[in-house]
């Protein structure tokens, strides 16, 4: 029993690692080579996993894609949780700027570029759209809630609620602008300009 | 001579109309059915044009796609020119709101959804990217310049320049949010919030 149980552990661990490698390769394949490159067979090859093992974990492309998006969203949400300032810290323009920069980093990262490929494919694929809409809604809620908390905006502040929504739309637009070219120099200036304004709007600073 | 010249006219006119129909069908195919649906053969069928005639106008898919994007950008730019308020009119929050709504309409329209499919494809296709980057840069410049003019922001106003850039990024993000669901109800509230803040930032209104 002890031996069997010991030998089962590494196998579960191996299986977990294989799954993770496949999900990571799915994100990389989507971001680098686009939607058509992210099939179970191509991702298995990219991950150095046999096609049979890949299909054991993900029998269909849809299962692979949705699991990869779930993983991305969970990772991003967990990362932001660990970075949110204490709720008792006062609001400040530095805190607003840090929160905006963090969410802009999310929307200009590899994960967003991968998600964009899935969105574009889902725009003309109702079955795929049905699978990813709940994931996307869950992520949008989490991103909004965490950005509110990171800035120190009260959940009851209706204007703050809308301003954070606008900020997420802004960040999404910056993500799209970064898809075809490196937009980082322009982006830094535009982010600073919006953050100054946002701090004023949230009542953190006096108008310049 | 007169007869020959007269009979050439309708043929040129027919050819121009066929070209327009093909370009319109390309936009519709991209927006409704995605990148993979926008081939010369599929677009010809959609437009009710023979494959041979379509290939006469557009020998390659790349030629068809870039011509369709050029047409879209020219149409959008011409439409915005006709709507810009006189340069001597004073800035006002109503003028800012109208300009933002107009550019948000552009980024949430069928043309943007079509362009998004091309962007997503170009992200992993260097040859396509090289073709559409100049078009995209030209459109971004025109959209920025016209939105500045529509709001009445002086070309020398550096803060205004950045705020209009941020507004275009915001509009692009709203366009992306509208890809998978009808986001119009949420969007109306967020646009109003953005515009209130933008008017304050541009010095049009007193802070609320």
From TrEMBL, chains A, B:
It comes from the Bacteria. Keywords: DNA-binding. Residues 39-58 bind DNA. PANTHER family: HTH-TYPE TRANSCRIPTIONAL REGULATOR PKSA, HTH-TYPE TRANSCRIPTIONAL REGULATOR RUTR. Pfam families: TetR_N. This is Transcriptional regulator BetI. Transmembrane segments: none annotated. One of its GO terms (molecular function) is DNA binding. Residues 16-76 form the HTH tetR-type domain. GO terms for biological process: regulation of DNA-templated transcription.
